[in-house]
Amino acid sequence: MSTDEDTTVAELRREMAAFIRERDWEQFHDPKNLSMAIATEAAELMEHFRWIKNDPSREWITDPQHKAEAAEELADVLAFALSFANTAGIDITSSLRAKMTKNAQKYPVQEYKGKY
Fold first, then answer.
1. pLDDT for the residue numbered 116
2. Is residue 99 domain-resident?
3. What pLDDT was estimated at residue 1?
4. Contact 12, 82 (CB under 8 A)
5. Distance of alpha carbon 83 from alpha carbon 35, whole angstroms
6. Are 39 and 32 in contact, with CB atoms under 8 Å apart?
7. Number of structural domains in the chain
């Protein structure tokens, strides 16, 4: 089984594109529907943590069953995010790096370290 260590974003994007194409789902995968799907799946991930306080949530995720449930929801979020990137022609790596540069300027380490 492949892992993050040996899989590229490009490979994941190609796999998602092939999966969608094989099922003729491109017709449904427009930016609006995909953005809504991302939000829906993110809400399903959040649902697992509803009513759990911060520190207990760190313990909750160490349980193998809970971790598997969260991983499945995260995979759904990622699948739709990859599909969104494919549909919109967004380079994920460039976008993420540009955003991290912007965040580093907005939240300098010396001012925000250890603060939220």
1. 76
2. no
3. 83
4. yes
5. 10
6. no
7. 1
Residue 62 structural domain: 8-90
Span 80-116, pLDDT tens digits: 999 999 999 999 999 999 999 999 999 999 999 998 7
78 part of a folded domain: yes
Q: Is residue 80 part of a domain?
A: yes
**For the chain, what is the mean pLDDT?**
96
Place of tokens 């995909």: 34
Q: Let me know if residue 113 belongs to a domain.
A: no
82: domain CATH number? 1.10.287.1080
The rounded distance, in Å, linking the Cα atoms of 111 and 64 is 37
In 3-state terms, what secondary structure has residue 111? Answer: helix
pTM for the predicted model, two decimal places: 0.91
- Tokens 């971790």 belong to 67
Buried b vs exposed e over 47-57: b needs ≥16 C-beta within 10 Å? eeeeeeeeeee
